[in-house]
Automatic annotation (TrEMBL):
Organism per entry: Thermoanaerobacter kivui (Acetogenium kivui)
UniProt entry keywords in alphabetical sequence: Antiviral defense
Domain of life: Bacteria
Record's protein name: CRISPR-associated protein Cas5h
Pfam families in alphabetical order: Cas_Cas5d (PF09704)
């Protein structure tokens, strides 16, 4: 099964936590529902049309935090834009705003941009190929952004091909990706490694209703960390080096080669 690997970059991001109301807190990485929207935007799938196509039975996502993330709180004015407000807006009249604290994500560690490495595969390989093709040509159908439309994102295809190796469940793995907590059997906490946990949405059902969220664990500075998992992990030979990834939904659909093979670099 071929996987499209691409970098998603930008100077700012905000991935709103679904359970916040008076303050807009952000996940430190794009949750699976955001990744679904990114893929739909690349392919030109309209809003509310892709939930079944990209549900956990049909699509696989992995995300690697490539640079440390830091937070900054700013208070923003939200203006109501319901239909009854349109006449006043057209007249450029006074619109009462509501001030809301907003958590912004910025790059840390001296990096110029946030950088999330996304791994995507679909049961229908033609969909994965189309994603890779559009990314290679830098032609997403709709503009991409990091959580809010003001935070435009840049993409770069890194790799399109199969994993170079399967790391079987139960073996130690130096993991680079965000991990679904259900798949963690044993972490190895060494000096400098700090793990954090977030509960985030996984998918939508018909009518844009959220399905039950799942818990995810990640290293706060984006460093690889050693663990034993209850599912297979997959190793990818990328131009920047080897990366080991566990997909958010579980294993890929069929057995991958266990021996190293020549990768297909984009």
């Amino acid at each position: 099964m071929k996987i499209a690997v691409f970098d998603l970059r930008g100077p700012f991001a905000h991935f709103r936590k679904y359970y916040t109301n008076t303050s807009s807190l952000s996940y430190p990485f794009p949750p699976r529902t955001v990744l679904m929207g990114i893929i739909a935007a690349i392919l030109g799938w309209e809003r509310d049309s892709y939930y079944e196509k990209l549900n956990p039975d049909n699509a696989r996502f992995g995300v690697v935090i490539k640079v440390p993330v830091r937070s900054l709180f700013q208070t923003v004015n939200y203006i109501r834009t319901k239909e009854e407000d349109l006449n006043m807006m057209k007249k450029l009249g006074f619109m009462k705003g509501t001030q809301v604290p907003l958590e912004l994500l910025l790059p840390g560690g001296g990096a110029p941009m946030l950088n999330y490495r996304i791994y995507f595969g679909h049961k229908e390989e033609g969909i994965t190929e189309e994603v890779a093709k559009r990314l290679k040509q830098n032609k997403p159908y709709f503009p991409l952004y990091l959580g809010l439309t003001e935070f435009i994102a840049q993409t770069q295809l890194v790799y399109f091909g199969e994993p170079s190796k399967v790391i079987p469940a139960g073996e130690e793995v130096m993991l680079h990706s965000v991990l679904t907590v259900d798949f963690l059997k044993k972490p190895f906490l060494t000096n400098g490694i700090t793990l954090n946990r977030e509960k985030a949405p996984e998918a939508f059902s018909e009518g844009r209703n959220l399905l039950p969220p799942r818990s995810y664990i990640y290293e706060t500075k984006g460093q690889p960390w050693k663990a034993i998992l209850s599912i297979d992990a997959y190793s990818f030979s990328l131009p920047s080096g080897e990366e080991n990834v566990a997909f958010m939904e579980g294993e890929l659909w069929f057995t991958m080669p266990t021996e190293n093979k020549k990768p297909s670099i984009a």
